[in-house]
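Record 1 of the preview.
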Amino acid sequence: MVKIFKFKNIVTTMLSGIFLLPMLSLILRTDIKSWSQALHMQRIYESIGITFYILILTIIFNILIGTPVAYTLSRTKSKLGKVLEILVFLPIIFPATVSVLGVQYRFIQFGLIETTLGVAIVHTVMTLPYYILSMKSGYTTISDNYFKLGKVMGVNEKQIFFKITLPMLKKSFIVGVAMIIMVSLVQYLTTFIIGGSEVMTLPIMLMPYMVDGGSKMGAVYSIIYILVTFISVVLAKSIINLLWRDRNVRSKN
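->
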């Protein structure tokens, strides 16, 4: 047991080192002057605000569209369900630029080019397969007997979802939202094609500095980008846990 415990500690330390090494390397490339310059730039705060706003819209769109689709896919065994599943995962199969260029003309017609809403819609298309896959995995673990039992007890569809289904989907929902955040925050080309120079997200601001490998400002922006991603995931998980806890308390009362 002691040997196993020591082995786990060694593996954990090695993995932590692998993940922390890039962060440490970035920190060592910065200095006080570069941090002071970055933190006094108004556009960095504006880009963080725009990034969070697009992220919130993307999460909302994913929940509204992806949740019922995931349920349908988990309960449909027909060929039509398989075709629908293939269509859902097409954005992953095809390159992002191909998918975005395909809808760019329509976005111009509807006035969605160079708007945060247009970027959020494109991010939804890119992140939806990951959210649906996560939620579908959660739905498949729930037996149909729970739904049948709820109907026998006279519970309507809304009550079945909020009192039976939703509590069982907590882990899948957290994973799905985390995937939305991480995939959305790495969208550069899609954001640039649809948002242009008007929608300045963190990846758009970061990319010019990535060209210059020795840029101290690039290292500062990279650290800010990592922190925003980490904070977004932690914040989303905390909010979900709070909502679930509040719902459990109200259901008991």
